[in-house]
Amino acid sequence: MNDATQQEVFEIIARQAKIDVAAVKPESTLKDLGIASLEAIELIFDIEEHFNITFPDQQGANFDSDTASSLVEAVQKALDDKAAGEGNHG
Amino acid sequence: MTNLSTRRVVITGMGAISPLGVGAGTLWQGLREARSGIGPLRHEDAGRLRVKIAAQVPASFDPAANIDERTLPLLDRTSEFALHAAREAIAESGLDFSQGDLGLRTAVIVGTGVGGETTQDEQSRRLYADNAQRAHPLTIVRLMTNASASQISIAWGLRGPTFAVASACASANHAIIQAVQMIRYGLADAAISGGTEACLTYGALRAWEAMRVLADDTCRPFSANRRGLVLGEGAGIFVLESLEHAQARGAVILAELAGSGMTADATDIVMPSAVGAAAAMTQALADAGLAPQDVDYINAHGTGTAANDATESKAIRLAFGPHADRLAVSSTKSMHGHALGASGALELVAVIGALRDGVVPPTANLDKADPACDLDYVPNVARSMPVRAALSNSFAFGGLNAVLALKRAP
Fold first, then answer.
1. Has the ipTM of the complex gone over 0.95?
2. What would the pLDDT profile of B299-326 be if each residue is shown by its tens digit?
3. B338 counts as catalytic
4. Rounded to two decimals, what is the model's pTM?
5. CATH architecture of A3-77
6. Which of B391, B15, B49, B383 is nearest to B210 (CA)?
C-alpha cells in the first residue's frame, strides 16, 4: 500500500470528522469516527474529487462499517485501474 | 379530530401520465399485471452517466395532443404531464365548471418536488455551456413551481384557491390533503389536485448519482437484495368533491378520501424515522374514523432503499400492532419507479383500483426475504381480495410524512 495515498485519505477523513489526523487508525470505522450517513457520502465525494477517481456504486450504500484502511484500498484500486486504462490508451 | 369537519370528500375523476403509458386505466391495468415501466435510460447524455435505468414516460407520449399550439410553448414537461392528466380526470368526473359559480368554488392544488427542472437545465446549458447571450423569454413562466397549477386553472377557468405544494417525495400527498381540507371546511366545493414531476435532466441525474441511492438493476422494494430506488416521472391528477356535491349531480364516485395524517420526523434530513411515519399513519386512521383492523391494504412508500423499507416496515408495526400481520402491503414503485413529487398521485391510482376492483397490486421484483422487512408484501403477483379501506404512504427527504386514508365509495 502506498503510504502517501494512505496519508492523503486519512487527512480527508480527519477533515470530514473534524478530528486530528493522528486519531484516524487503519481499523477505525467511519461510524467510530462519528461520520454519519450523509457525511460519509460527502467524504466519498471529497476523496473522488481529490484523486480524480470514481468509486463504483456500493451495494446497499452502507458506508458506516467501512474502515479507514478499506477506503485506502478502494482508492488504490481505483488509481491502479485508472493508470491501467490510461496505459491502454497510450 | 375536530368538530369543524362536517363535509365528506370523494374522488370523482382521475388521470395519469406514467411510465406505464397514457391514462389512469393504463397505469392501473399495468400494475395489476405486474408490468414494469422501468427500462434503459433514454437520455442524450446517457453515455456519460453512471445511472443506466429509469422509469420514464414512454417516448410515444405526445405532449401536443389536445393542447392548443398557443399554450404549448408556455409549458415545461411537468405542466404537459399535469394538463394531460387533468384533462382525463375532469372528463371522467363530468363536471362543467361554467355552471353557476363552480369555477370560483374549485381549488387547484398540485404537488411537485422541483417544478420546471427541464427548463432550468436547458437554459443553464445555453448560458453556461453555449455562452448564449440571452435566456428564452418564457423561461420563468415555464419553470415556476406553480406553473402546472396555474395552467390547469387557466385551461378550465378555475378561480378558487390555486397554488403548488412542495415537500419532495411527499408533494402529491401533501397537495391532495390541502385540497381535502379546503373542501371539508367549505373553502371550495371541488378541487383538482395531485402531483407532477419531470426532473430526469443531466444535472439532476448527476445529483442523484452522487447521493448513491440509485439501483443499477431494478427496483426491489422489501427484498433483501434491493439496491436502491429507480427514478421515475409522470403526473396523477384527481377531481375531488364534497360528497353532497357529487351526490346532488348523480356523479360516479370512485372512492372516499376519508382522512389524512401529516407529521415531520424532526431528526435527520435524509434518514427516515419509524416513529414519525407511524404517527402519520395513526393520525390518518383517527381522522378517517378507522380502527387498524378496518384496513386491508397499504400502498407503501417502499422506495427500495435499505433505510426506507426496513424503517417503513417497523413503522407499520408501530401503527397497526398485531393487525400488521393481516395487512396486504405493496410498493408499486417496483413498477412505476419513484416519480418523486408525483409518486403519491400515481400510487393513489393504485389504491383506488384496489378499492374498486378488489385486487391488490403486487410488489414486483421481490425475490429474497429480508428479516428486517417482515410483513406481507404481496410479492410479484396481484391478489384478489376485498379491500374495505386502505392507506397510501409518502415519506420525503427532509423527514416529511403524508398519509392518505381511503374508503370504498359510499
1. no
2. 999 999 999 999 999 999 999 999 999 9
3. yes
4. 0.95
5. Orthogonal Bundle (1.10)
6. B49
